[in-house]
Amino acid sequence: MPPEPNTWSKVEEIKRQSQFLRGQIAEELAQPTAHFEETTANLLKQHGIYQQDDRDRRGRQSCPEGQPAERTWMMMVRVKIAGGRLTGDQWLALSELAHRFGNQTLRITNRQDVQFHGIAKQHLPFLMQALHQGRLTTLGACGDVVRNVLACPAPLADGGLRDQLYAQAQKLTAHFLPRTKAYPEIWSGAEPSADLSADQRPGVDQEEEPLYGANYLPRKFKMALALPEDNCVDIYTNDLGFLAFVEAGQIRGYEVLVGGGLGMTPADKTTFAALAQPLAFIRPEELIPLAEAVVKLFRDHGNRSNRRRARLKYLLADWGMERFRQELERYYGQPLPPPQNVSVTGLDHHLGWHQQSDGRWFYGLYIENGRVADRENIRLKSALEEICRQFGPGIRLTPMMSLLITDLAPEDRPRVEAILRSHGVRLSEEVLPVRQYSGACVALPTCGLAITESERALPAILDSLEGVLASLGLERLPLCVRMTGCPNGCGRPYNAEVGLVGRAKDKYAFYLGGSPLGNRLAFLYEPMLPRQEILPVLGRLLEAFTSLRLDGEGFGDFCARIGPEALRRLTSNGQNT
Ligand code: SRM
Ligand code: SF4
């Protein structure tokens, strides 16, 4: 049984008191302050908005003696884009809004969303209304609900399989969208809900959120759909995954995977990163009922006292798979057919030119860490704007933080390339595999939880790593290096071939041995490696790899085969690794 409400965490109290996410948001928005109070800032997350401050400026502002240091307040706004599909006009609108209200950049996330950074509090209403006019929403992008549902965005000629996954992602999105009327009331000027009388107590009227209820879920909940031959969504890192079983060109069913999640708190040994495990095999028409049963089970039994242990993976670990299945069957109303050993066999980043099923073309453009910006000689943001204006393409966002420019005629191809080149943007074909496969989370200067650098540090590390790989004849090695600025694992480092997890300023826990397919966790090789040691250590490991790898073996598989102890011996050479 879930604990009694009096043991619930502060966030649960905030949600419960908020009258379906209203709280004091409207009142505080109207005040001429630069930031929201803590309770309201907490509630705003449920609206897709994070209050942040510019961490580069912390401590630099002068303030009267004895006063707490002022912060440069700003908001991060995450736009939820189910399956990552946008029109060219929507991309243009996002790009222009980033210019008007944000820090002039857009950040494609690894869950196919788009983030604005650096939004001033007084600009929030304008931004949110403009998003609404562009048929975009931030509802369900953050908060204790079902987050953006991932599906491969590539319009490949695959007999419509990916379109079927996208259709399921849309259905899941619609099914689990929060219903609260607070969102349109606050952000698009809808009339306040008539049934919200002053004496109405939160939790009394469940009709406003029939599925979630007044307290919503205990924590975020993530879902993804994939084809076995293309795990570009990193399906095993999700709370709930649907891996398609394809026979004679048709999706006959889905292997259901549960309990993935990467966040952990090293000081709390009861927390851990986990990959999703096979639970059942279902027919396509059972997907929504099954997803609803899992979400309801989590709603009712997830940990509401300790947010660090409030993910589905902990419920699964505490109960064990057998009890989890039995409890779930009660919600589902029937026995669950056993899983059928469907597993991933490949992964594609969809970069470069590809022909679509309708004969037109798409171009997968590599974007370093998803950051779309104009910087000195590389004017990526302007290039994409010009492409959208000239060709009116579709824009699709990948879970690897890159972008597909779709629906192009054959004769558009050289013109698109010419625009990219004239803006100084490198074509994907010119980017080495190690960079294509790698990525970093946002971290400093916006992320309030960052301990050290990530997005700003990885490019230079990869520059040097490319040199090391070239010197060993490994420049075409598809090596996946993922970096994060703290142990929360946003950049998915724990199942990468090389994972770098920020633990202190310029120091990283160093993980090895994840699978390139995303279906094996990495092991901790070195708990606290200074940033300047990363390249030397990695260089020695790669040398050992070149001499001892099996035919066609990848670096992650090699490290997993050799194991941490033998790797340490192999690379020690009297040096302290
Ligand atoms: Fe994340 C919190 C950025 C994907 C696990 N994540 C945050 C916040 C909102 C920091 C905060 O709470 O104050 C970061 C905002 C930084 C900024 O300035 O923009 C943040 N997470 C991101 C993004 C933008 C990283 C990126 O480089 O793309 C990703 C946005 C995805 C999206 O569009 O929804 C992002 N975060 C992930 C993933 C990967 C995934 O979902 O596939 C994970 C690991 C998977 C998982 O959920 O376990 C992830 N983020 C976390 C956690 C740890 C949660 C946990 O269970 O312990 C936190 C901390 C928290 O929620 O309290 C977090
Ligand atoms: Fe911030 Fe940590 Fe997530 Fe990186 S991993 S974005 S530093 S919360």
Summarize, please.
This protein has 17 helices and 21 strands. It is of the alpha+beta class and 577 residues long. A hairpin with a 2-residue loop joins strand 13 and strand 14.
Chart the SSEs and their pairings:
Layout: H1 10-17, H2 25-30, H3 38-44, E1 49-53, E2 73-79, E3 85-87, H4 88-101, E4 106-108, E5 114-119, H5 124-133, H6 161-176, H7 182-187, E6 223-226, E7 240-247, E8 250-258, E9 277-282, H8 287-301, H9 312-319, H10 321-332, E10 352-355, E11 361-365, E12 371-372, E13 374-375, E14 378-379, H11 380-391, E15 394-397, E16 403-408, H12 412-422, H13 433-436, E17 439-440, H14 458-471, E18 481-484, E19 498-504, E20 507-512, E21 523-530, H15 531-548, H16 555-562, H17 564-572
Parallel strand pairs: 6-7, 17-18, 18-19
Antiparallel strand pairs: 1-2, 2-5, 3-15, 4-5, 4-12, 7-8, 8-9, 10-11, 11-16, 13-14, 15-16, 19-20, 20-21
The structure holds siroheme and iron/sulfur cluster (SF4).
